[in-house]
Each structure stands twice: as C-alpha cells, then as structure tokens.
Amino acid sequence: MSIGIFGNKIGMTQIFDKNGLALPVTVVSVGPCFITQLKTEKTNGYDAIQIGYSKGHTSKFSKAELGHLEKNGLSPLYHLCEYRVNDLKNYSLGQILTVDNFQVGQFVNVTGKSIGKGFSGNQKRHKFKRGPMTHGSKNHRAPGSIGPGTTPGRVFPGKLMAGQLGAKKITVSKLEILGIDSKQNLLILKGSVPGKPGNLLNIINSK
User: Fold this and answer.
1) Which of the 8 DSSP states describes residue 123?
2) Hey, where are the domains in the chain?
C-alpha cells in the first residue's frame, strides 16, 4: 500500500491546457505531515507507518495522545492515519512528507467528508420525480406508497426514503495532478474533491 498525505481543500478554479481547453481544477494545500510511528512485523505483527498532520495546542489532547507523540520528540498533531507498507527502510521517525512525494501527471485518490445537506426529501436525496402540479393532485413532492399492506405488513429494509443527505466519507478516484507548487505546498488536481473549502482531505497514490 502506498503512503498517503493529509491536506486541506482551498477551492476550485480553472486552468487552460496547451490546446486552449479550460480544465476545472481543485487547489489543495498539502502537508507537511510527520511520520509519528513505525510499526514492525516483530513488534506489532505487520509493517506500517503512522503519519500526523496539523499541529495543535497541548490542552486539546489527552495524556495518552501527548505521550504517544512526545516520546518520539514530536509536537501534538490533530490528525493521525496509518498505512501498511512492505518495507520500512526508506522511512524514519519524524520524517517530513510534502508535495515532493508526488509528480505531475500522477493519479491520486482523494478521500474526505462530503458537504452535509441535512434532512432531505426523495427528490433531492434520490432524484425521484415529482407528482402532477395541477388538477388538485395534492401529491407534488410526497413519497407516495412505500410498500404493500397486509402482506408483508412492513417496509423492507433499504427502501429509498427521505433522510440525512451528505456528511459522509467519500473517495474520488484517479484524479490527475496537473501542477505542483513546492514553495507553497500546493497540489492542483483535475476535477472536484469532497467538501467545502478548508475540508480535511487524505490523498493517496492511485493504483
């Protein structure tokens, strides 16, 4: 498994390619992330790397969280994530991961929480059609029948109905990296990524 990196969504814009075509892109502020733990086959039963992102004040952390990071000489980090690897030779505690780990033209998977839209009806949540708007139908946006009556006398699980929309973990696969700014730690990705500007993102190389 490849090593990923954390970042925050800045926003969307567009750039023009060499043929003059406008391409929608998302600008992401990436890292720097720190390697906070090396897990080995001998100690933990598998090889893995834990990375941390976004420094915070010590008052925001529990004693266990502070001890885990301070024993390795690291400052408190809000977000931790683990990635399994086949070899630990190229990694060390405290190593800094930046946009230099990526290349232009590379494809990545981006994971983040989608925008929450609250309790939504069938038309917005599931793209249902509405009922007739005239002749006194009184069924403009109503859900209609949700199941048979006497038999089976219940609603089957998984029935598409109104409910919470958004605010879920979503992964967008195979987004191409169109540009990298090493000075400001920026990635320019073709297409859109989950969430609003400022949303936390996990970026990993696409297989």
Assistant:
1) H
2) 5-117+168-205, 118-147+158-165
Q: Which residues contact 58 (CB under 8 A, 6 or more apart)?
A: 66, 76
Per residue of the chain (207 residues), give pLDDT as tens: 578 899 999 999 999 988 999 999 999 999 788 888 888 888 888 889 988 888 777 777 888 888 888 877 788 888 888 988 888 888 888 888 888 888 999 999 999 999 999 999 999 999 999 999 999 998 899 998 888 888 888 999 999 999 999 999 999 999 999 999 989 999 999 999 999 999 999 999 887
CB 81 within 8 A of CB 2: no
Amino acid of residue 102: F
Say how many CA atoms lie within 13 Å of 168 toward its Cβ.
8
Q: Could you give the CA distance from residue 186 to residue 190 in angstroms, rounded to a whole number? A: 13
What would the two tokens of residue 139 be?
């069924």
For residue 53, give every residue at least 6 positions away whose Cβ sits within 8 Å of its Cβ, in sequence order, or none. Answer: 5, 6, 31, 33, 34, 77, 78, 79, 80, 81
Q: Sign of the CA dihedral 140, 141, 142, 147?
A: positive
- SS3 state at 70: helix
| CATH number given to 5-117+168-205 | 2.40.30.10
Rounded CA separation 22/100 (Å)? 26
- 3-state SS, residue 102: coil
